[in-house]
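Exercise 7. Given the encoded structure of a 658-residue chain, write a plausible sequence.
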């Protein structure tokens, strides 16, 4: 989707305009010293822009929602907009854009009037200050940066301490039928950014050839006297953005729209070079009706073979065409590459054609219907971490759209917001008196590897090490620390309410591990709790030096491995069977319960469990366990559906794992 120009009728006097245009582009920079997170780049001359369009140029319409994340320690943040107006450079049409900023502490995409911090118009005069914010000017300048400074407000602060905001960008009213509009701009902020609603459009803009041509083709005169193919240019046909793929992801789904893939004519103008033909083909894993898509593809034609584009990419016009890197004639149809953190490249040579969407799917072996994809990896899950998408051969003014969880970038590196709306954690400590409670003077244990799970049947979603100041949410951990020091401090940032399980890794008990020779005093290596509306910082683990079983077992903690909820009862050898149980109650699958020897009572337990205990599950005999210390007993032993996760003896203290 671009407006076409006949380069044979460009005004010869445009060169005189070039110096003035370039001076305006460099007249004002982003607010603050940086570095800046940017969409799509910070260079005011490279033509790479976020874009809005109306259907009069044969493209899709949309709204942008962008999440901004300001750390708890920041009193304020800045947001800068380049060419935020409509008209003049980089744009076609007259409809202005509206920029609204909302407090969004839970990253829920709030657009509540009560959460509105401010609204600014792209083409009209705006106030230069308001409650908690100031701007660099009343109007957004053409082809230059305009800046907003916002004081962080408690209304935007999440339980974790981070401040989250929702920036909503839209047209000033609905597009009229057949309205031709392209409004292009750049964003920069000193905070990380991502698309809160993962849908966006971009292009390399050349909408106003008289104004933009001298910027895209810098030189002593415009049009370049030697032709466009050999002329220096600020845009090489590439775009790049980043994606953060979390652990346990079985698939990566990208959706590209209206790429106009496919050639029309093959003779370039005015150079006469011959283009390499290409055509849009049906994408096998994209339903023609988009029935499996997670969004409504409004305005799209059925997916199929939809080429040539309007106009096509590759275009015959030398002015707009970009191709494979290094090609002397700038020939090459648009394509893109998805690059995993380990450098593996998944190439898409058949992106979407005219006015259609296509899915690009990379899957692991555990994905649903892995055969219905573009690529399969050998592993169950995709590699976690930062993936990148690199578009190659995108012609100038080819407006295209994406649905993808893209992050901004800083100096070519990803700048993804924190997902830490809530914190879970936060202490592993040396329990000197072995009472299971963190007492004054008891210090943390550094170097303990801790995992976070949302589902114990899957690998951990995050892993950190206690006392590690480089962990992602360390600043917020410090602010909410419930321990006596930072040596045993840890926490995880999580985006949503739900049940989370924290597990102290088994590797900690190996030779040289942080917990070698130690045993739990708090019921084992796993704790589960529910995040509802605030942080949960009670996932605390106490450890003491373990020793041999002496004087009978005094305490055992079990995890129930059964597949269904059960009523469990535990009685001592000399106690009245089922009449005076040491423990009795309902236990869920994966749940834990503790059996403690009473100081007195039937059978004369004297603080121990006696010589043996008997376990009943749903009134049926399940296991008999020796507790006299005459046989091995300790964490790691399994009796039927019962796993010993912690224990202690009367004279030997915590039991060592077996």
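Solution.
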């Amino acid at each position: 989707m671009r407006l076409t120009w006949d380069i044979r009728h460009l005004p010869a006097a445009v060169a005189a305009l070039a110096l003035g245009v370039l001076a305006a582009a460099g007249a004002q920079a982003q607010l603050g010293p940086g570095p800046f997170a940017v969409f799509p780049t910070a260079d005011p001359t490279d033509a790479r822009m976020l874009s809005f369009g109306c259907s009069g140029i044969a493209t899709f319409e949309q709204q942008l929602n962008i999440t901004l994340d300001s750390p708890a320690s920041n009193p304020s943040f800045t947001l800068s907009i380049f060419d935020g107006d409509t008209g003049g450079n980089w744009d076609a049409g007259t409809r202005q854009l509206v920029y609204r900023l909302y407090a969004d502490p839970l990253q829920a995409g709030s657009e509540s009037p009560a959460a509105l911090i401010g609204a600014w118009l792209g083409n009209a005069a705006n106030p230069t200050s308001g409650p908690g914010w100031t701007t660099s000017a009343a109007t957004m300048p053409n082809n230059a940066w305009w800046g907003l400074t916002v004081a962080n407000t408690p209304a935007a602060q999440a339980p974790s301490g981070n401040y989250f905001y929702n920036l909503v960008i839209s047209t000033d009213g609905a597009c009229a039928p057949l309205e031709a509009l392209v409004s292009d701009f750049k964003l920069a902020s000193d905070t990380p950014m991502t698309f809160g609603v993962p849908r966006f459009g971009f292009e390399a803009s050349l909408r106003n050839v008289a104004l933009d041509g001298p910027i895209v083709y810098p030189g002593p005169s415009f049009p370049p006297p030697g032709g466009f193919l050999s002329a220096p240019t600020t845009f090489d046909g590439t775009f790049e953005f980043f994606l953060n793929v979390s652990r346990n992801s079985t698939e990566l789904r990208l959706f590209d729209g209206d790429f106009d893939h496919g050639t029309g004519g093959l003779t370039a103008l005015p150079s006469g070079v011959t283009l390499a033909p290409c055509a849009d083909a049906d994408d096998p894993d994209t339903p023609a009706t988009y029935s499996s898509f997670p969004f409504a593809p409004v305005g799209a034609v059925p997916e199929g073979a939809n080429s040539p584009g309007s106009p096509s990419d590759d275009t015959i016009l030398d002015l707009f065409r970009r191709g494979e890197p290094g090609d002397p004639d700038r020939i090459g149809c648009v394509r893109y590459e998805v690059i995993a953190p380990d450098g593996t490249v998944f190439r898409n040579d058949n992106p979407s054609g005219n006015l259609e969407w296509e899915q690009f799917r990379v899957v692991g072996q555990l994905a649903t219907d892995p055969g219905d994809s573009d690529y399969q990896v050998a592993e169950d899950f995709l590699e976690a971490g930062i993936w990148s998408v690199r578009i190659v051969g995108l012609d100038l003014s080819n407006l295209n759209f994406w649905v993808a969880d893209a992050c901004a970038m800083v100096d070519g590196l990803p700048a993804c917001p924190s997902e830490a709306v809530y914190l879970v954690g936060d202490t592993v400590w040396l329990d000197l008196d072995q009472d299971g409670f963190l007492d004054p003077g008891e210090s943390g244990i550094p170097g303990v590897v801790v995992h976070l799970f949302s589902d114990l049947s899957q690998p951990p979603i995050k892993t950190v090490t206690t006392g590690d100041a480089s962990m992602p949410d360390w600043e917020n951990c410090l602010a909410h620390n419930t321990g006596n020091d930072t040596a045993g401090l840890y926490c995880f940032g999580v985006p949503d309410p739900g049940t989370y399980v924290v597990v102290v890794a088994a590797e900690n008990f190996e030779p040289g591990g942080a917990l070698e020779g130690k045993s739990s005093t708090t019921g084992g290596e796993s704790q589960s709790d529910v995040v509802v509306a605030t942080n949960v910082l009670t996932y605390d683990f106490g450890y003491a030096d373990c020793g041999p079983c002496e004087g009978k077992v005094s305490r055992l903690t079990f995890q129930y491995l059964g597949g269904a909820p059960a009523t469990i009862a535990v009685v001592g050898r000399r106690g009245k069977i089922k009449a005076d149980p040491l423990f009795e109650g309902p236990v869920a699958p994966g749940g834990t319960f503790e059996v403690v020897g009473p100081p007195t009572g039937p059978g004369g337990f004297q603080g121990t469990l006696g010589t043996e205990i008997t376990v009943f599950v749903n009134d049926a005999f399940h296991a008999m366990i020796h507790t006299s210390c005459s046989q091995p007993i300790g964490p790691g032993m399994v009796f039927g559906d019962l796993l010993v996760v912690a224990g202690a003896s009367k004279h030997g203290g915590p039991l060592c794992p077996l």
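Remark. Residues 236-395 form one domain. Students should compare their own answers with the one above.
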